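Hi R.,

Here's the chain you asked about this morning:
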Amino acid sequence: MKRLSILLLILSASLTLGFAQDVKLFYQGNELGDTLLIPNIDPAPNADDYELTIGVNNNTEDEISVLIVKKNISILPGSYNSFCLDVCYGENVDTARRMLVLGAGQTSDFLQFHILYNARGNVGVSIVKYMFFVENVLADSVFVKFSSEGVGISEMPIRVNSFTAYPNPANSEVTVQYDLSNYRFGAKSNIVLTNLIGSKIMSVPVSAAKGKSVLDISNLVSEIYFYSLEVDNKIVSTKKLVVK
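And the predicted structure, written out as tokens:
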């Protein structure tokens, strides 16, 4: 009986180790589940590429090398999707040509790995699966759903006429200018500044459909950040800001 108990303990420990998660995925500071929905992608033909940062976290005490593989599940015809791992690949590349190397406990940032999407004038949904392998074993994966779908008049998407920051690069303060063309203003809206891994640095309320706000960035370290326009608790536009 005692021998059987010892064998059961060993089996239990082996199962625990076998299901250890070497990699965890994060978006804007929160751990991801199976699916990440990115709504309100600008469908305009001349829109900038949407840049999405998913943080890949090394959940081990050793350095690991992660292989990233993209699989197109359901793609909106005419749209574009790709990813960057130190360098940006073409849309037909599904497997990264280099490994994402992470130290113990390290989480990747925008410069190491990010995703690109552009609806290119098309309205609809694309679903892309990203898989992360450690030593040829699938460590984690996520379905990313990009939506540029049209909605009813009462839910008409917010169209951003302009959204820009200057100077950029900046070192002490930056002016963010915005213009929402078809939005009947009145909801809670903010300019949000986040770092490379999606953690919120500051949030500045805005009170009109068109205007500008000055952000004090004198205390920020030299790095790449992102400034976003948030309306009704939804991010409607995001762009890069370089602090030097």
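The CA atoms of residues 119 and 173 lie 33 Å apart.

Let me know if you need anything else.
M.
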